[in-house]
Amino acid sequence: MIKALCIILCTATPLSNAFASVTAPPNTPLNDDLDLKSAQALLASGDYANAFSKYHAAAVNGNHPLAQFTLALFYQNGWGRAADRKTACQWFEQAAQNGVPAAQHMTGLCVEEGLHRPADPAAAAQWFHKAAQAGHLNSYCHLGNLLMTGNGVSKDPIQALELCRSAALQGSVPAQIWMGKFYLYGDASVRNPEDAYQWFLAAAQKQSAEAFYHLGMMLDQGTTGDHKAAQIRQLFEQAAALKYIPAYFQAGKHFFAAEPDAETNRLPAEHLAKAYLWISAAIQRSNNMEEIAAAQAIRQQILAVMPQTWLAELDRKVAQHVQPD
User: Fold this and answer.
1) Tens of pLDDT, residues 118-152
2) 8: exposed, middle or buried (C-beta count within 10 Å: 0-12, 13-18, 19+)?
3) pTM
């Protein structure tokens, strides 16, 4: 249950918003601020090496929270270097100690997972609470997750819902997804599939890939009654088109399982092509070995009936889709 609930929603906070309440330390020389503006321009242009050098100097020499937070993003996102989540967490924590709400939230995630120090859910709860109090409202949902499971804090499913609900009602898509998960997977005392469906639907209306996926799973499993196979396929395909990796296998599987054409008794060409596309994407991007094995088996069945002349173009489309943005 903890695994089901503890899916991290990595929401990137724009730098301008992340630091709206952060000012430079009182003794920061003017030229340091100018260097940071220069660093931001270099980062925006994709000159990662020179941008990193300037941010690093400001973070180390000036103890500047903006530079510390941005260095963490360099390591987290692998900008111009190998991704290193442990080092990212170390810089997140320094920025958090200097009052950056987004960094406080990220530090909570780091401490919860035990990435740069031993896992400590109680300490994570403190960081989430501090970030939420400073205006990072989605942190209440992560704090709510700990309350829902009783991980590091006293279990209180009702309070978990109430903490997250405010951000969800304000239109936060991550918070709406959290509410859906709480109602679908949370403590038995608060589970309500109908409410879960409504929260996922609210997020899907804002084009949330994860919300489309959860809606598809709910309909496929009959959680909210009977639905047409075409509707389920559409939901999984919408999530897959937005590069939500868990949706690739589901989309491919459902297109391959679609009803055959009444006249030819064969799968319609469009469905066969889509089945190949999404199954191939699942093989390339999924981290679930059982899913990959199942996808490979389906792919062999597809290849047995699909014209070979389609392969080059379909493989090109798969390669284009799975490229990083």
Assistant:
1) 999 999 999 999 999 999 999 999 999 999 999 99
2) exposed
3) 0.84
Mean pLDDT (whole number) for 61-69: 88
- Per the listing, tokens 């009977």 go with 226
φ, ψ at 186 (rounded to 5°): -70, -165
Phi, psi of 181 (to 5 degrees): -65, -40
**Whole-angstrom Cα distance, residue 212 to residue 99?**
35
Determine the 3-state secondary structure of 120 from DSSP. coil
Question: How distant, in Å, are the alpha carbons of 36, 64, 212 from that of 54?
Answer: 7, 11, 41
Residue 253 and residue 165: Cα distance in Å, rounded?
A: 35
> By the 8 A CB rule, do 115 and 89 touch?
yes
How many CB atoms lie under 10 A from the CB of residue 64?
25
DSSP 261: P
Q: Provide the Cα torsion 99, 103, 109, 113; round to 10°.
A: -100
User: Which residues, 6+ apart, have CB-to-CB distance to 81 below 8 Å?
Assistant: 48, 52, 74, 75
- Residue partners of 117: CB distance under 8 A and separation at least 6: 110, 111
61 has pLDDT over 90? no
| pLDDT tens by residue, 307-323 | 999 999 999 999 999 99
> Which structure tokens are listed for 101?
């709400």
Q: Token pair of 227, please?
A: 């639905």
Residue 31: pLDDT band with limits 50, 70, 90: low
CA distance 116 to 228: 47
Q: Give the model confidence (pLDDT) of 111-121 as tens digits.
A: 999 999 999 99
**DSSP H stretches of helix in the chain:** 2-5, 15-18, 30-44, 48-61, 65-77, 85-97, 101-113, 121-133, 139-149, 157-169, 173-185, 193-204, 209-220, 229-241, 246-256, 269-285, 289-305, 311-322
How many Cα atoms within 13 Å fall on the side-chain side of residue 233?
Answer: 17
